[in-house]
Amino acid sequence: MFRFRLEKVLRHRERIVDREARKLQGILSAAALLDRENERLGRECEAAAAREIAHGFELDRMKRFSEFTGGRRLQIRRNAERARRIRAEAEQQRQILLAAQRDKKVLEQLRERQLAVWQELERREDRRRMDEVASLRHGTEP
User: Fold this and answer.
1) What is the pTM of this model?
2) HEC secondary structure over the chain
3) Which residues of the chain have pLDDT under 70?
């Protein structure tokens, strides 16, 4: 029976790949959450502008509208900056994940090569045994 000496190492590499993939997914989810928040804030600004147009020009109302949308736009800029930093972090995490996947693939290829060698040795041993049985049978027959 074939036994890969580095099976435990390979399983460990698989766990590392899974862990790094989950980290990347978490980072990307955080960026997507900020994008959705910015979309919501943008819709709030558009709705407020539509309400202002419908009500006409009033100085107090325009001042409140300006403060409201200014606050929302500031939050949008902050969120966009955070999302940019998060995406840079995601790119770093993606590189870590790719390295982990390469490490795992090297072990998988090594395992496949060793399995092929083992299988060839098994085939040779089977042929040798069959030849031995055939020679014994041939030698005992009249």
Assistant:
1) 0.74
2) CCCCCCHHHHHHHHHHHHHHHHHHHHHHHHHHHHHHHHHHHHHHHHHHHHHHHHHCCCHHHHHHHHHHHHHHHHHHHHHHHHHHHHHHHHHHHHHHHHHHHHHHHHHHHHHHHHHHHHHHHHHHHHHHHHHHHHHHHHHHCC
3) 139-142
